[in-house]
Design the sequence.
């Protein structure tokens, strides 16, 4: 993310989620914390660490692939959980970082959560094909996410029901953007958060910099960007303060719990042409 001085902050009123049961597994907080602590000191090391975490979570073999990115030295990493339908739900986070800090907040906090979300959702058959992507070179201009969409092509892009982007979690409670985000996806998140009594609020971070969600929004894909930035915590990004001790583990774990439930809910209820 680039930096400016202020964010647009608001609050979301939670709705009541459908009484229909969603199925997923909640991992212990110790697992989430251990994976957060597995960040490497280079982008190549982080891609390998993410690969190791996916393998540990049960995504391996033909389900886990590198995707070469022409403009980058390090590939995207893609884990696929097959579903009944052709439509996909993508959850993405970039694993690259800038050198001013350790890049734990921006964005190992998002990338290291991807394998845990896969593990939480893999236990039951899914309607959508769930795709988890670690994007390369976000900090150099959304290089990995732009390349992913280009290689996907227009026909496959139309099969994306939703893209959930995770960028800079854990410095406060879960935040979502609404200035460019899909309103149906925002309403679904509010419903899930209200049902599970987990906190969310609206902080439009788009004015401080672009994230991989923008690549998908530019292609008219329904998208939501989840983060934890406030006017105070934004100062951590791209600074020496971006370290493991900048993460509030209770709030980070709440974000994991919310996002796991949210993806299970989207899989059950969300389709491109209809509101949840």
Sequence:
């Amino acid at each position: 993310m680039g930096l400016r001085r202020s964010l647009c902050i608001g609050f979301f009123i939670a709705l009541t989620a459908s009484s229909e049961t969603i199925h997923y597994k909640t991992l212990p907080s110790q697992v989430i914390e251990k994976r957060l602590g597995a960040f490497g000191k280079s982008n190549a090391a982080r891609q390998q660490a993410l690969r190791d975490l996916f393998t540990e979570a049960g995504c391996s073999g033909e389900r886990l692939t590198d995707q070469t990115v022409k403009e980058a030295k390090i590939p995207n990493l893609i884990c696929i959980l097959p579903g009944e339908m052709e439509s996909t739900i993508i959850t993405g986070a970039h694993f690259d970082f800038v050198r001013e800090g350790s890049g734990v907040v921006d964005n190992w906090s998002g990338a290291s959560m991807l394998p845990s979300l896969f593990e939480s959702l893999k236990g039951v058959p899914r309607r959508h094909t769930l795709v988890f992507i670690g994007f390369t070179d976000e900090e150099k201009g959304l290089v990995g996410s732009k390349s992913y969409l280009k290689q996907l092509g227009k026909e496959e892009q139309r099969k994306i029901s939703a893209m959930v982007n995770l960028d800079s979690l854990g410095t406060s409670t879960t935040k979502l953007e609404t200035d460019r985000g899909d309103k149906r996806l925002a309403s679904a998140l509010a419903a899930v958060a209200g049902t599970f009594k987990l906190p969310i609020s609206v902080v439009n971070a788009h004015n401080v910099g672009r994230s991989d969600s923008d690549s998908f929004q530019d292609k008219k894909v329904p998208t939501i960007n989840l983060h934890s930035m406030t006017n105070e915590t934004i100062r951590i990004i791209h600074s020496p303060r971006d370290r493991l001790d900048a993460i509030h583990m209770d709030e980070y774990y709440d974000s994991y719990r919310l996002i796991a439930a949210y993806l299970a809910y989207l899989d059950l209820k969300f389709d491109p042409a209809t509101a949840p």
